[in-house]
Amino acid sequence: MMNKSRHPPLGQPPRISRSPVRSSTLGPGYSVANSNTRILGPQGGTATLSSAVPPAASANLGLNSDRLRTQMVRRLREQGISDDRVLAAMQAVARHDFVDQGLASRAYEDAALPIGYGQTISQPWVVAYMLAVMAQDRTPQRVLEIGAGCGYQSAVLAQFVPEVYAVERIRGLYDQARLNLSHGRARGRVRLSFGDGMRGLEHRAPFDGIVVAAAGVKIPEVLLHQLAVGARLIAPEGAAHQRLILFERTGPASWHRVELEDVRFVPLRPGTQA
Ligand code: SAH
Predict the structure, then answer these.
(1) 26 lies in some domain
(2) What is the pLDDT of residues 174-196, one digit of tens each?
(3) Is residue 27 part of a domain?
């Protein structure tokens, strides 16, 4: 039985406010960097560069990054993220270590950034929101991320979830993520694999949470079957118009579906890319 509704009736609705906060746009020509972001109405749209540091300061980013992350976390709170586990994790993980050096000075803007291969590191708000919704009112022990990219979101997850599995389908990004996750706060904490995440990770299922970082026209049903009863999956769905969808498994053969924010993500693709 698939139960559909537009409003959150999952016992406890996601306690996430929808304050009209601006999202970053980088102007024309940056369509990739605008992926894995929230889409806001006409009131949004102009760049928020409040925490950007000028390029000259980027050499000192290592020293400044704690302060920049504090600003990022404060902004996330203002944007309605209230889960302290998620906020502490985002304070802990050095996002600038997950992007190219040339972009490091922009790592704490509320923007997605290119990571190569036509993919992006998700906007901080998107990362925080997805993790907060997935983990709301529960303490997940084992979580699967589909679409590891450069590994940032799985590094954040690993700060408060003991067993994190992540799958990436592009070999170059898988290598990048493996390197990024081999040091720093996430060292040795994420079990990363190269493969097609549309099939999930059957031999490790069931999961207490699944987070999908790329948009399928339909969310693959096999993933819903890899959720433990009571667990949640959050994923973007759609083509031209995408929305974040939350599924909660309510029984062996029943799921509850809720539609959340409008977003734009890179596509979920089958198979692997060498
Ligand atoms: N989680 C990342 C976001 C990466 S962008 C972050 O921390 O910011 C989404 C990623 O999903 C891309 O790297 C893309 O290659 C990957 N992807 C798309 N389809 C996939 C699939 N079927 N299996 C695994 N990864 C997939």
Answers:
(1) no
(2) 999 999 999 999 999 999 999 99
(3) no
- What are 13-49's pLDDT values in tens digits? 444 443 333 333 333 334 566 899 999 866 544 334 3
Q: What is the rounded CA–CA span in Å between residue 232 and residue 133?
A: 8
* CA–CA gap between residue 219 and residue 214 (Å, rounded): 10
Going by C-alpha positions, the residue among 213, 60, 63 that lies closest to residue 151 is: 213
| Residues in contact with ligand 1 (CB, 6 Å cut-off) | 36, 119-122, 146-149, 152-153, 167-170, 173, 196-198, 213-214, 266, 268-270
Rounded Cα distance between 204 and 141, Å, is 12
122 is catalytic: yes
The answer to whether the CB of 195 falls within 8 A of the CB of 221 is no
248 touches 232 (CB < 8 A) = yes
Which structural domain range is residue 78 located in? 33-264
Asked whether 168 and 149 are in contact (CB, 8 A), the reply is: yes
User: Which of 90, 222, 266 maximizes ligand 1 atoms within 8 Å of its Cβ, making it the mutation to test the pocket?
Assistant: 266
Q: Which of 247, 185, 182, 240 is nearest to 212 (CA)?
A: 247
CA atoms lying within 13 Å on the CB side of residue 41: 4
- Residue 11 covered by a domain: no
Considering its fold, how many domains does the chain have in total? 1
Domain assignment present for 70? yes
CATH of the domain at 170: 3.40.50.150
